Amino acid sequence: MWFSGNYVELQLTLKQAEMASHAGQCDDDVRFLSRLPSVARQLRELNPENLRRELKEYGAWDESELSDHEQNCQRILWIAAGDIRDRA
């Protein structure tokens, strides 16, 4: 299944999306998911500027927070998982 934003696209299985989007704290699960080879490859390919622009549109993080590419990858993975899970 696909998450397609304005500047970023990610592909996850429904099982992967459900793993990283659930009630309660998801940070550890998102980190685990980000290390799976198929997901890690996609995250490595993300353009840092496009990712910042994508996340900036959510209005949840300031410029200082958006300067951390690794954190931005975790953020977009969590958002993508939630979007895919909600659409399933």
Describe what this molecule looks like in 3D.
This protein has helices spanning 14-20, 27-34, 37-44, 48-56, 69-87; strands spanning 2-4, 9-11. By secondary structure, the chain is mainly alpha-helical. It has one domain (2-87). The radius of gyration is 12 Å and the shape is globular. It starts with a strand and ends with a helix.
Give the helices and strands, then pairings.
Layout: E1 2-4, E2 9-11, H1 14-20, H2 27-34, H3 37-44, H4 48-56, H5 69-87
Antiparallel strand pairs: 1-2
Helix pairs in contact: 1-5, 2-5, 4-5
Could you write a compact summary of the structure shown?
The chain is mostly helical. Helices cover 58% and strands 7% of the residues. α1 packs across α5 (69-87) and α4 (48-56) packs across α5 (69-87).
Element order: H for helix, E for strand: EEHHHHH
In which order are the strands of the major sheet placed?
1-2
Biggest beta-sheet profile: 2 strands, antiparallel
The computed structural class is: mainly alpha
Q: Helical residue percent?
A: 55-70%
Which percent range describes the beta-strand content? 5-15%
Report the total helices. 5
Tell me the Rg in angstroms.
Answer: 12 Å
The overall number of domains is 1
Beta-strand segment tally: 2
Low-confidence stretches: none
Q: Average pLDDT value?
A: 96
Task: Please give a handful of descriptors for the protein shown.
88 residues; mainly alpha; two-stranded antiparallel sheet; 5 helices; 7% strand
